[in-house]
Amino acid sequence: PNTLAPLFYNLGRISSYTLIGTIVGFTAQIGLNFGAGYDLLLILRFVSGITLILIGLYIAQLNSAILQLEKVGRLVWRYIQPLTLKYLPLKTPYHAFPLGFLWGWLPCGLVYSALTLALSSGSALNSALTMFAFGLGTFPIMFLVGSLSSKFNNLIQNSKFKKYSGLLLVLFGLHIIYIALVQLSASGI
Asked: What are phi and psi of 66, to 5 degrees?
């Protein structure tokens, strides 16, 4: 019974990520349909790679430039955050779903990096699927953090863990930029 709240919370969070992915993907799809084309996708891939690098540097505690991007998200969060108060404290585990859905809009650099990657897919469906996969990928750790928060808090706060996690994101960002460069040279642009 006490695992229902983290489960529903995470299902709500994944649902909001999928919806956000659909919205940004639809926006990219409109841009592509109106002639922005392949060049736009390459630019979005570069932006995605750079965003991942900045997030990796932030997690590794080497640079905090990504926090500027989170300021943009705070504009939206200012209107959503008061809605979360309706579900706090949780009266039933089922209130965790709408709470998770609303908290999915919380400004977060890692979510933004996934969104830039989703945006570079160029379609609403692929973008939604990317964000759904991102949500599923974060599900195990978020579920465990929600269920066993005191035990995992020590791991997440460990400086070596942060450095290695950040480095992995930097490498992934560099890989995305490399792919965009290969596509750029193959297209002859």
From this structure: -65, -20
